[in-house]
Each structure stands twice: as structure tokens, then as C-alpha cells.
């Protein structure tokens, strides 16, 4: 990776300080013109100070260009240790990150404090984008600086921001590297300490500084990056985080450190019996009248609106209510039953229900159960619905009807201790937005992205008697298993009807390995790209009695599906 020499760093630093003095000398003129146009507020006086940044000038990415090509906002969340002003925004331009023309400084609540536009470039290295109006920051307050990569291909440093730390006069929390898919917006998601190499030029001040106010887009030239003090490298440890709607394409996260692989449980030679407590009826007997609220004689419109906290306390039982917004179920020991999850708004790329807290990344330590309920995305706009996932996390999901979202159910950010049962759910009616080959959404009816047995070798994930249909037009498939967020172990897929486009059943070794995967007595429509595929890894440990679905065949059996 190219890096700046000591001479170029010194030159860049002198040039940046000279530019800062020039901007301050012209404050009165610039501010008076801007105020006349109703665009900018007056600039507070600040004491002269040298500038600094969060990261070392020599920091270069471990991955020069991620293979992901989806539109994504990438940034870092930080808090300055002292009052001061941001005079420029910085990011590392990758050779494959094409069309990058905007960078933004955000408040923690998502107000754009500064947004600059500039000419695109493919010259690799740090770019400094000057602000025509410095932005005042308050010590101890959280901010985000980011840039928008409309075609992906961004650089990233792996496992760099895993733990909280202070450096160069800034505080960084765990998982300070943040991103969000789709149009440019405040990035909130994080994944295992990714550093997307975004920074600020900061001039500390001892003066009292008023709170910043949102400002419109500015246009400014770019300059070489000045030299902050070098920063230490932390030891990488995985940090689970929520993610955007799952997709089969590589996404803006680094390769996690592999976990030691336990010896897989030997595959049985005959189909295992359904686990104790299972409901009756295979997936091909499931429809919208047999799961969710309908068999109970209930409808979403007839249920009272839930008025409790969006961060649900441990021990809560939510029964017979209509939930109209997102819920944080990370406290664990929570039951949702006979309820309607019908959001009226949804954050792009985020789940409606999640068992991981998006601030401290806590994963539910005790069982969450969602049963006999309906997830209904019909009150969302098509675009908002397409970018939403009904559920992401670790839970027992039983007899639910899910429809009207971009993706349905996801076992992801699953921790390392809890078992999970996904049984007799019906996911259908998924929706898409945009071009799935470029910047649009991807749909999975059900997906598994991590489920490790590293802590408990007997840990089990059972996917039983469900009906999963992915037919949005931008489809990965009905049931997609990919080691995207961590390794996956001990999964039984049995008695399911898998329908729609894409592949009905996919098994993909992506970042980490998988083990002890069993597919027994499932039915496929064989539409789209076909019934099943395996990409990477050793494949299915057991593949028994899997058939194309035939309504006239005995037990729905048509032609046998060969082991992929």
C-alpha cells in the first residue's frame, strides 16, 4: 500500500495550516455572503491551533478494494476530548472506489453538520476535502464522519476498531467503524471492528464553542492529507454487530479471525426424528391460514397498539398487541406471542426486531421467543420495506406469518451459547427495490449468517417444517446459509418447502468454515436458478430424502434432488 513519506507529511501539514489561516482571514467576507443567501451561520472565533486527526497519516488498508459493489456510506464514530473545529474531512480513496464525490460530518442524531462535494478520483491514497466553513465540535459529544461510495469497491482495514480506545485527542468506542447501505445517510451499522479509513482535520481550542448547526452541501477542493500523530494498533477480537439486509454478495466488512473448529458431530445415517416439542405438519402444509394470527381468529387491526419501551426489559411477555416500530430484544428472556409486528417506519438496512443492541452490541443472553404472530410490512413504502428485514438475531421463531419486507428472518449476530428453533413459519410476499446487480436490494426468505459451536459443542439450530418463498425479483433464495458474520455449525434443515427464485437452498463458505450441516426430507419448487447449490467448504454432511415438490406425489415427493 502506498504511504506518505516524512517529507510529504510535513509539507501537507504546513499546507493545511496555511489554508486554515487563509479561511479564518476571510471569515467575515465568506460569512456575510453566505448569510445573505441564507445558507450558513456565522463562524465563531477560535484560538489559533495546530491540526490533528484521529488516525496516523501512514495508515493504509489491509484490503485495497472490497469486492462488494453496492452503494454504501462508510465512516467512523468519534468523540473529541476537547472543544475545537473541524476544518476538513478526509478519507482513503481506493483505486476501485469509483464515483466518490461526497463526504459528510454528522451529529450523533443524524443532522448533517457539513456536507462537501468534490470531483471523483481513482488515485489511491488519503484525500483531504476542505470545508469552506469550519464546524465547531463539543468535547465529549459523539460525531460521525463518512463518505459515500456509490459503487462499493472501498478500502478497509480488518479488525482495527474492535475495542474502545483513546488516541490523538479522540475517543473511539467499540466498533467505531460504521456503514449503511443505500442512499447517503448517517451510517450506524458496524461489523467486527472494521476501519473504513475516514478521518477529520481538527483544530482544538480552549475557547467556549457553541453547538454546531446543520449546514447544506458545500463544494471544495481537495488537498493532500496532513499528518496526525501515529496511532497504536489494538489486538483484534471479534465484535458482533447488527447488519444490513443480508445479501449474497460481499459486503463492507473485513474477514474475521477464524475460530477454532470443534470436531463435527457424526452425521446420522437415517433421517432424525423431529425434535421434542415440534408442531405437526411439514412445510408444504403451511399457508397464511395455518400460521400467525389467522388460526387464532385475530387480525392486526383488532389488536391494541403496544405502548411500552422500544428496548424491551428482560422478563417481558408481549401478547395480543400491535407493534408499530422497531424493538430491541437484547435484554433476553422475552416472549412475543399472538401479536402483530406492523411497523409504520423502518430504518434503512436495519431489522424491525433484533436481539442485538445497536449501541453497545449486547446480544440477548437468554432465550427470546416469537410465536403465533404476524410480521406485516404493508404500511411501509415499497422502498422502505425492501430495505427492511423483519427479524435479525437469535431466537425461537415458531408459527409466524411474515410478508411485505425485503427479507424475512435471519439468524445472525447469534452469539455463542443459545440454541435456536425456527419452526413452521411462512415467509412470502417479499419486495425489492432498485437493480439487484448494482445498488438495489437482495431478498432472502430465511438466512443463517453465523451460529458457532465454539463455546458449546452440542449447540443446535433446527430449521423445521417451514415454508420459505423468495420471489421479489431480486432474490438470493428461499434459504441461504453463508458464513458471512462467523462460522456456522450444527444445523438441521428438515421438512421445509422452499420456493421462489434464485436458488431455493444455498450453502456458502464465505469468511469462515461451516460444519455438521444436514438437509433432510425437504421439498423444492426447482424454479429460478434451481433447487440447491454449494459454494466452498465440504458441503452437506447429510443429504437425505430431498425432492422437488409435487402436489400429487406421496408426501409431496416428485423427482429426487441430488446432493449438490
TrEMBL record:
What range(s) does the DUF4082 domain occupy? 60-198
Bias (Low complexity) occurs at: 207-222
Q: Where is the composition biased (Pro residues)?
A: 223-275
Family annotation (InterPro entries): DUF4082, Pectin_lyase_fold/virulence
Q: Where is this region: Disordered?
A: 207-284
What domain of life is recorded for the organism?
Answer: Bacteria
What is this protein's name? DUF4082 domain-containing protein
Give the species this sequence originates from: Microbacterium yannicii
Amino acid at each position: 500500500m502506498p504511504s506518505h513519506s516524512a517529507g510529504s507529511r510535513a509539507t501537507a501539514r504546513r499546507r493545511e495550516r496555511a489554508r486554515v489561516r487563509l479561511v479564518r482571514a476571510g471569515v467575515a467576507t465568506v460569512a456575510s455572503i453566505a448569510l445573505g443567501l441564507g445558507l450558513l451561520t456565522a463562524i465563531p472565533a477560535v484560538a489559533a491551533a495546530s491540526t490533528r486527526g484521529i488516525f496516523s497519516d501512514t495508515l493504509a488498508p489491509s484490503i485495497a478494494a472490497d469486492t462488494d459493489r453496492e452503494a454504501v456510506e462508510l465512516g467512523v464514530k468519534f468523540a473529541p476530548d476537547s472543544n475545537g473545529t473541524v476544518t476538513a474531512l478526509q478519507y482513503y480513496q481506493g483505486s476501485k472506489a469509483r464515483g466518490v464525490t461526497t463526504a459528510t460530518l454528522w451529529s450523533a442524531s443524524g443532522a448533517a453538520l457539513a456536507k462537501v462535494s468534490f470531483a471523483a478520483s481513482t488515485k489511491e491514497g488519503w484525500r483531504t476535502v476542505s470545508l469552506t466553513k469550519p464546524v465547531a465540535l463539543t468535547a465529549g459529544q459523539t460525531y460521525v464522519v463518512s463518505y459515500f461510495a456509490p459503487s462499493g469497491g472501498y478500502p478497509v482495514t480488518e479488525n482495527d476498531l474492535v475495542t474502545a480506545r483513546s488516541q490523538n485527542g479522540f475517543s473511539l468506542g467499540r466498533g467505531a467503524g460504521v456503514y449503511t447501505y443505500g442512499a447517503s445517510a448517517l451510517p450506524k451499522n458496524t461489523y467486527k471492528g472494521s476501519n473504513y479509513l475516514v478521518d477529520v482535520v481538527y483544530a482544538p481550542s480552549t475557547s467556549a464553542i457553541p453547538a454546531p448547526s446543520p449546514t447544506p452541501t458545500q463544494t471544495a477542493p481537495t488537498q493532500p492529507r496532513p499528518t496526525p500523530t501515529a496511532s497504536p494498533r489494538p489486538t483484534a477480537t471479534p465484535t458482533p454487530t447488527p447488519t444490513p439486509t443480508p445479501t449474497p454478495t460481499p459486503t463492507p466488512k473485513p474477514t474475521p479471525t477464524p475460530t477454532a473448529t470443534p470436531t463435527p458431530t457424526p452425521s446420522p445415517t437415517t433421517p432424525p426424528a423431529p425434535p421434542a416439542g415440534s408442531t405437526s405438519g411439514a412445510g408444504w402444509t403451511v399457508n397464511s391460514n395455518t400460521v400467525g394470527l389467522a388460526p387464532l381468529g385475530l387480525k392486526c387491526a383488532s389488536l391494541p397498539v403496544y405502548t411500552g419501551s422500544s428496548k424491551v426489559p428482560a422478563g417481558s411477555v408481549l401478547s395480543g398487541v400491535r407493534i408499530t416500530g422497531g424493538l430491541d430484544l437484547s435484554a433476553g428472556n422475552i416472549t412475543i406471542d399472538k401479536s402483530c409486528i406492523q411497523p409504520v417506519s423502518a430504518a434503512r438496512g436495519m431489522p424491525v426486531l433484533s436481539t442485538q443492541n445497536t449501541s453497545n452490541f449486547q446480544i440477548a443472553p437468554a432465550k427470546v421467543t416469537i410465536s403465533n404472530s404476524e410480521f406485516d410490512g404493508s404500511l411501509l413504502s415499497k422502498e422502505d420495506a425492501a430495505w427492511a428485514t423483519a427479524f435479525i438475531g437469535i431466537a425461537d421463531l415458531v408459527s409466524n406469518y411474515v410478508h411485505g419486507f425485503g427479507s424475512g428472518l435471519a439468524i445472525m449476530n447469534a452469539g455463542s451459547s443459545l440454541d435456536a428453533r425456527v419452526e413452521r413459519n411462512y415467509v412470502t410476499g417479499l419486495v425489492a427495490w432498485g437493480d439487484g446487480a448494482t445498488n438495489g436490494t437482495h431478498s432472502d426468505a430465511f438466512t443463517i449468517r453465523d451460529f458457532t459451536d465454539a463455546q458449546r459443542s452440542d449447540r443446535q439450530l433446527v430449521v423445521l417444517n417451514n415454508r420459505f418463498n423468495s420471489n421479489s425479483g431480486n432474490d438470493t433464495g428461499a434459504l441461504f446459509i453463508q458464513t458471512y458474520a462467523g462460522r456456522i455449525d450444527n444445523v438441521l434443515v428438515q421438512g421445509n418447502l422452499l420456493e421462489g427464485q434464485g436458488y431455493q437452498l444455498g450453502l456458502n463458505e464465505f469468511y469462515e468454515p461451516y460444519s455438521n450441516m444436514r438437509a433432510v426430507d425437504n421439498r423444492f419448487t426447482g424454479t429460478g436458478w434451481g433447487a440447491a447449490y454449494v459454494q466452498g467448504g465440504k458441503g452437506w454432511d447429510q443429504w437425505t430424502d430431498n425432492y422437488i415438490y409435487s402436489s400429487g406425489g406421496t408426501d409431496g415427493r416428485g423427482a429426487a434432488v441430488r446432493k449438490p
